[in-house]
Amino acid sequence: MTAQRTIEDEIGEIGVWLMGEFGGRVPAAVISRVLNASKRDLEGRIDPEELGEMFHTLCRFRLQRIVAADQRITVKIPGTRLA
Q1: Cα dist from 73 to 13, 26, 42, 68, 76, whole Å
Q2: What is the pLDDT of residue 74?
Q3: What is the pLDDT of residue 78?
Q4: Domain that holds residue 31
Q5: pLDDT exceeds cutoff 80 at 1
């Protein structure tokens, strides 16, 4: 039971860290969905000792892709000003 609590603590800390890193660029609800989906995808498939590192890597990759996709679809019109 102690090992499971440690994993949950680590996942929580990673979530806070990723919220801080991506919070200004990705809505909190989207970050939360990525965290939950990544946890579901990894649970029971990864050795518990490696879960934290894999969770961080997977979440960060997914969030980076979201940011990159958002930057690709942003339309910039030269010579215009935003109010």
Answers
A1: 31, 14, 30, 9, 9
A2: 61
A3: 67
A4: 2-73
A5: no
Establish if 7 belongs to a structural domain.
Answer: yes
The answer to whether position 22 is within a domain reads: yes
How many folded domains does the chain comprise? 1
- In 3D space, the residue among 7, 9, 65, 59 whose CA is nearest the CA of residue 38 turns out to be 59
Tokens standing for 80? 């215009």
Three-state SS annotation for 2-36: HHHHHHHHHHHHHHHHHHHHHCCCCCHHHHHHHHH
Tell me the per-residue pLDDT of 13-28, one tens digit each, with 9 for 90 and over: 999 999 999 998 999 9
